[in-house]
Design goal:
This protein is α+β, with helices and mostly antiparallel strands. Helices cover about 30% and strands about 30% of the residues. A hairpin with a 2-residue loop joins strand 11 and strand 12.
Length: about 300
């Protein structure tokens, strides 16, 4: 296994509170409010061929997540989108993973932190497939998490907030300890929700079925895949999926900026066979994210 360079030891520069600074200078104090009280939101984006896929949508969601947590980002959306591009360009990347993050600083250390400064940083690094490419093509294996996605009146489920990922990390670690690649989570009602960092789709009778995102994020990649499916005349149904319905699906895949479109071969005791629809959408998504900027501009203009 190749040696992993710790993220605080990498070379180059990142964007921090309005300026490009040396990568190793991107530090915060140990008493930062975001660390202790999870007052932190973020995005996960990918750049392909010099274009950050759905950049405007990601930036808008970042601002909405901050608003939900009561944080006002001290920049405009255009400035943050431009900073995301700068974070890639300064590293010389054409293909990269991009992480904007917003958090409350260390001016106050208590549950209430009205006077804390709102910080923003953006880093980019080269990152290939989220899952092992060889395993990905045959379908990854998911465990079933013991943790459930919370109700929207118990947590800010419409925000991409760091605190919501605590049970995701716990679920993924437990799954990996058993030899699985990831875990699927049910929601507080017992309906199928998502994987630890990706939305989920199933195939039945040549049509897509996917959970209603009413207590977890309606992912940007999720929405892209639905658009691609409809362009192929593949029917899409959004519904609450009960546990006993999993026996009736023949294909399954997960989607996300990091996961892209990844086939699934099993979830606990349920088995699936990556097939034609999964492969078609995986290829269509790969083509969509790599479209030249000129084609994207023409498509928007038309």
């Amino acid at each position: 296994m190749a040696e992993v360079i710790p993220f605080d030891k990498r070379e180059g520069q990142l964007w921090f509170d309005g300026h490009l600074i040396p990568w190793t200078d991107g530090k915060v104090h140990v008493l930062t409010h975001g660390l202790h009280y999870a007052s932190c939101v973020f995005e996960g984006e990918r750049m392909y061929n010099g274009r950050i896929y759905k950049l405007a949508e990601h930036t808008t969601r970042l601002f909405e997540s901050a608003r939900i947590l009561g944080m006002t980002i001290p920049y405009t959306e255009d400035e943050i989108s431009a900073a995301c591009m700068s974070a890639c360009e300064v590293q010389g990347f054409k293909d990269a993973y991009v992480r904007p993050v917003v958090w409350r600083g260390s001016e106050m250390m208590a549950v209430s932190a009205q006077q804390t400064k709102i910080h923003v940083a953006i880093a980019a690094w080269e990152w290939g497939s989220y899952f092992d490419p060889k395993e990905k093509m045959k379908g990854i294996r998911l465990d079933v998490s013991d943790w459930k996605r919370p109700a929207p009146d118990t947590a800010p489920t419409a925000a991409k907030a760091s605190g919501l990922y605590m049970i995701c990390t716990m679920s993924k670690h437990a799954a990996e300890a058993k030899g699985y690649a990831d875990a699927m989570m049910f929601d507080y009602r017992g309906y199928v929700a998502e994987a630890t960092g990706a939305n989920i789709f199933f195939v039945k009778d040549d049509a897509l079925v996917t959970p209603i995102p009413d207590c977890f994020l309606n992912g940007i990649t999720r929405k892209s895949v639905i658009e691609l499916a409809k362009a192929r005349q593949i029917p899409v149904t959004e519904k609450h999926i009960e546990r006993n319905e999993l026996d009736g699906f023949n294909e399954c895949f997960i989607v996300g900026s990091a996961a892209e479109v990844t086939p699934v071969s099993e979830i606990g005791s349920w088995r699936f066979k990556p097939g034609k629809i999964t492969e078609t959408l995986m290829n269509d998504y790969a083509e969509d994210v790599r479209r030249p900027v000129s084609q994207v501009i023409l498509a928007k203009a038309s």
